[in-house]
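Lecture 7, part 2: worked example. A protein chain together with flavin mononucleotide.
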Amino acid sequence: MTAVSSTFDTDFFRSALGRFATGVTVVTGPDREHPGLAVGLTVSSFNSVSLSPPLVLWSLAKQSRSLPHFLHGSGYVIHVLGASQLALAKRFAWGEQAERFREHPLRTSPNGLPMLADPGCSAWFECRPYACHEAGDHIIFIGEVTHCERNAHQPLIYHAGDFDLTPSQD
Ligand SMILES: Cc1cc2nc3c(=O)[nH]c(=O)nc-3n(C[C@H](O)[C@H](O)[C@H](O)COP(=O)(O)O)c2cc1C
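Predicted complex, written out as structure tokens:
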């Protein structure tokens, strides 16, 4: 089956895109309305852009409730989730924003941004805003990485609209 441009089938397009396996991240940033608090969501659109300067990207739906916080914020932290963090990924995708951090405490990144304290992350990237581009129903965020960390945890994988529950090798 193919999708033809004149009668473009969005559901089919989405399912074709889903054949591309990705990692899973949670992006956190300051809550602009409540100083000291954070906003965050599950994101699979993360990718690398440039080594020098060190740039990464992710895209955020225009309908996302956290959009104003990231558009006008001082930066964000992208956490690459480990295989043990399935519940966290679900909570940050489907839970209410106010509930997301209830069981997932925060700590502060080197430049003072709120980030997950959970030691199960495979890597994290602290970013300052570099560029934003409007693209259809999403905004593409390009961040300049100011600090990053990694460890040997197996990554959480998302494929064909579902999380890959292959047992962790940790
Ligand atoms: C595996 C997975 C990946 C996702 N990736 C993205 C993404 O890249 N961009 C996006 O805008 N939403 C993505 N979402 C959906 C958001 O996590 C979800 O809509 C979230 O509730 C948005 O929160 P907010 O409205 O509080 O900003 C993803 C969801 C899942 C389960």
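The CA atoms of residues 37 and 101 lie 9 Å apart. The mean pLDDT is 94. Keep this in mind for problem set question 3.
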